[in-house]
Amino acid sequence: MCTEGDTAPVTVTDALRMAEAALGYLRDPGTASLLPAELGGVLESVGVLSGKLAAARAAILARFEAERAYAADGHGSATAWLRARGRMTGQAAAAEVRQMRQFRDHPVIEDAVAAGEVSQSWAAKLAEWTRRLPGDWRHDVDKLLADTASAGANLEDLAIIARAAYETWRQQSGPDPDEPDDGFDDRFLKLGTTLDNAGRVNGSLTPECTAALQAVLDSLGKKAGPEDERTEAQRYHDALQLACELLLRSRLVPDRAGADTRVDAVIDLARLLGLPGASELHEAWLAALTGEHGYLGGLHAEAAACDALITPVVTGHLDLAVVDQMIDVIVAHLDRAGGDHVSSGASDRSQALSPQARQALRYAIARLAVDLVAGPDRLASILRRGLLDAPYNSKSVILDVGVSAAIPGALRRAIQLRARHCEWPGCRKPPAHGDIHHLRHQADGGETSISNCVLLCQFHHDICIHRWGWRLVLHPDGTTTAYGPRGQVQHSHGPPGGTGPPGTGPPDDQGPSRRRAA
Fold first, then answer.
1. What is the secondary structure of 263-274 as a DSSP string?
2. Which of 9, 188, 352, 400 sits a CA distance of 20 to 30 A from 168?
3. Which residues on adjacent β-strands are paired with residue 265?
4. CA–CA separation, 332 vs 314, rounded Å?
């Protein structure tokens, strides 16, 4: 380190030795000797030294490139030499050469960096703003910007000054019509990957591309709800991923299209039951369940396809009031079987159930009721195939497929029809934003079924479920409850009167799975 009596270096070797000694001292023991109140000032001084070092390095690199000194070591460019001998990544080497050329073309800004008046990052901005100006204008505007920055102006003020200077130049002389320079040829985008396949994006975008990307990020990067604890930068990352996935799902990417238009014809079960002949088919189906004669298998016909593939889907509304009546019937039957003839016994026994127990019983019966009418040759299929004409009486499609490496298209469409939007409580993202999620993972024995799969948007699926540890419960009536890692509970519904809030059972209770058909 320098002590009293030391003189200025007389050679580059002396300067390098003194700089190395000084930097070594700053790191240790200099850092350890600082008081907390001194750290900020020292950081500012080191920042100035960093700028001086960058200016010195750029000057040496400029001479290195001008003399083609890289050729002596067998390299074809300064960038290639930096990558090999400097052990730099290609991106870092290119950035170093780019900074050197900026300093070469903007000597006033280089002097400001060397004097500690402008930081390296600000210098890059100033040089980018004035690079399209002719040489005489560039020098004067660079000087104005550097002096204004040295006087304490912020970056936003400098941007206004640079824009005003550029517009003044355009009005007075305008760009050369023979050599237009709108920055279009400088556009680029690079996507690099790390060893673990994470990515890094670097680029220079045109104003049109910037505006389009900003609109997409602003639209898709909004907070998704009170559970959304992502930073703006994280939301923008997820928005970019979602935008790409939406583009792929819309089949607008070349070589990924070709599928026919599909029409899902939704038929309500209640309307089927009201059609002529429904009662006879209903009775025949019930008789078939008990092993009696008279079972009707329904008609078979191919779906008519003219510019669209029509898929009939039978839907129904689960009325829990009917389930309550079932509970009362079951309790009354048990009372009669046990010889209990107290007139109000059934009602009293039913009401004696705790709200939690009654809700669990309601959902258990509801699941069984759904399984009773939905599935191959179950009531919904019998009515649809027996009462409707082609193309609505086609063969039923298996939805609950058990273990599957992929989500079948029919199951995906059925879940989208059931959900209509992300099934997370309070989220209304449309199906195009959604992924199919197994409530109980297949590795834990969960099946690929209508009752074990839900539609979730990218944020609630990838972030809340798989990153932050939330869990989701799908109830038989189509409502959901989300359980957070810190005890948070969110319902997609209000609690039904007198029965306690849905979802009070264990979060992993998804009920039995059945092989079901549309």
1. EEEEEEHHHHHT
2. 188
3. 312
4. 33
SS3 456: strand
* Cα dist from 88 to 64, 93, 341, 377, whole Å: 17, 6, 90, 68
Buried b or exposed e, range 326-339, using 16+ CB within 10 angstroms: bbeeebbeebeeee
Quick one: tokens of 341? 């003839």
User: Is 481 in contact with 492 (CB distance < 8 Å)?
Assistant: yes
> pLDDT digits over 399-457, tens only?
767 777 778 888 888 888 888 889 999 888 888 778 889 998 888 888 888 888 999 98
**Hey, what's the torsion of the CAs at 258, 261, 267, 272, to 10 degrees?**
-90
H or E stretch including 189?
A: strand 188-193
**Rg from Cα positions in the chain:** 36
Tens of pLDDT along 110-138?
999 999 899 999 999 999 899 888 888 99
Query: Is residue 212 a contact partner of residue 449, using CB atoms and an 8 Å limit?
Result: no
Mean pLDDT confidence for 288-299? 42
Give yes or no for a contact between 223 and 239, defined as CB atoms under 8 angstroms apart: no
- Cα separations in angstroms, 239 against 110, 304, 349, 431, 454: 38, 40, 54, 16, 21
Cα angle value 171/173/178 (rounded, 5°): 120
Give the tokens for residue 423: 């099934």
